[in-house]
Amino acid sequence: MTNNERSLIERAQRVAEEVLYPDAAAVDLDGVVPARHWEALAAEGLYGVAVAGLELSDIARIIEVLAGGCLSTAFIWLQHHSAVRSLANTANADLRESFLADLVSGRKRAGAAFTGAIVQPAKLWATRIDGGYLLTGDALFASGWGVVDLLQVAAREKTADAADTVVSGLIEATAAETLSATPVGLVAGQATATVRLRFDNHLLPDDRVSGVAALSDFCTAQTIGSRLNGAVACGIAERAIDLLEQISAVPASLLREQWHSVQAGLDNAPDPDMLQKARAVALRSAATLVAASGSAALGTGHPAQRLMREATFTLVATTLPETRALLVDGLAHG
Question: Is the pTM higher than 0.85?
Answer without folding.
Answer: yes
